[in-house]
Amino acid sequence: MVTLYLSLLLAGVVFFLLHFIAQARIASLLRERHPSQWKIIAETESGNPSPFGIWMRLQLALRSPILPALEDASITRWRRVWRYCPWGAWLCWFGALGLQWMAR
Question: pTM value?
């Protein structure tokens, strides 16, 4: 029971880490393969934004239908990882909470 509980917690952490790794991988793939689209995300009219500004604009791009329209299989695959990993993490963590509640 303890092993399952710790495994669920660890799996939740791995899912959340994979969510952030997918963002970084999508950004690097966009920089390498689609520099004009990355320029739209990374630069604004007023100059170069802060890292937080780039992250916010990347979040908007990830949520939009623009990335699948690029028809790049690896970007689409990493976008799916980015999209569904938080769901897996929350399921694992709620499962761990359920185990903890049942063990009382």
Answer: 0.86
